[in-house]
Design brief:
It is a single chain. By secondary structure, this protein is an alpha+beta fold. Helices cover about 45% and strands about 20% of the residues. The chain is built from 10 helices and 9 strands. The strands form 2 sheets. Strands 6-5-4-9-8-7 form a 6-stranded antiparallel sheet, sandwiched between helices. The chain has a 3-stranded antiparallel sheet with strand order 1-3-2. The two termini are about 20 Å apart.
């Protein structure tokens, strides 16, 4: 939700501050912050230490967190929050069949993501057995500006929302190929918008290349992106574009058509 709308909503009688703060605490935990003290949670969320402590203790009492000597971590029960979304929306299970066909044909991993704030979040994935240093699965988050799916999703945003994205994002370098210049990235996104596919070459991780295309609803609006990722030592940029892009586009068309047939109101 845009900041202005969120601020206005907070002034309404429908806003529940305690729920907002509880979700902030849960989201303070991440791959880089798997265990946190009350002080750390307070620093990350901006909440006071007493408030952070009460929320952590409540989460622990409810079974969503556990602690040892004042150090907290989330429990597996928090997965139920994500599974509630996945189980209430069969969109991504529909996509799995087409994704598996793509992976069987190409031997390369295939993923679907949506834009969530300044990140992309993985909502479906079919991987190969080849191991990359980045451990990706459903629920994984990556910075949109450094990923092929992120480029596709950002390129299809209205101009005002894209500008809001840049205002909210700190462009950091992951490799020497990461694009962190706003003007250069804006020009790249315009190119992606024109051709309706995007690719990145080792911008997020050395040795990782990927290519992505949009998923569209029945009215043509982009609601997600699907990609293929591969090791740079195994496949060239040209092979990704010439051999795998047509198959990925075909897969995206099949998934988009299947979404429309299911009459899922969220995507048609």
């Amino acid at each position: 939700m845009p900041t202005e709308k969120l601020d206005n909503f907070k002034e309404s009688g429908d806003y529940i501050q305690s729920l907002d703060r509880g979700l902030q605490v849960i989201q303070a935990f991440s791959q880089n912050n798997q265990v946190l003290t009350v002080s750390h949670v307070s620093q990350i969320t901006g909440l006071s230490r007493p408030t952070a402590r009460r929320i952590l203790l409540t989460l622990e009492h409810l079974g969503f967190a556990e602690s040892t000597n004042g150090v907290f971590s989330l429990t597996a029960r928090t997965l139920s929050l994500g599974y509630a979304y996945l189980s209430s929306n069969n969109t991504w299970s529909i996509a799995q069949t087409f994704m598996r066909d793509f992976v069987n044909k190409t031997g390369e991993s295939c993923s679907i993501s949506i834009l969530d704030g300044t990140d992309i979040i993985y909502v479906a994935r079919v991987s190969t057995k080849r191991i990359m240093s980045i451990n990706l699965d459903v629920g994984s988050r990556l910075p949109a500006y450094a990923t092929s799916m992120g480029h596709v999703l950002l390129a299809n945003l209205p101009k005002d929302k894209l500008e809001t994205y840049f205002d909210s994002t700190q462009l950091e370098r992951f490799t020497d190929k990461t694009i962190i210049d706003k003007n250069q990235l804006t020009n790249l996104l315009e190119d992606v918008r024109q051709k309706q596919w995007g690719g990145v070459d080792q911008q997020l991780e050395e040795g990782l290349r990927s290519i992505a295309v949009p998923l569209r609803n029945a009215s043509g609006k982009v609601f997600a992106a699907i990609n293929c990722s591969a090791h740079a030592g195994r496949i060239t940029k040209e092979a990704l574009r010439e051999e795998l892009l047509p198959l990925l586009q075909e897969t995206a068309e099949k998934i988009s058509e299947a979404m429309a047939i299911t009459n899922n109101s969220r995507y048609v």
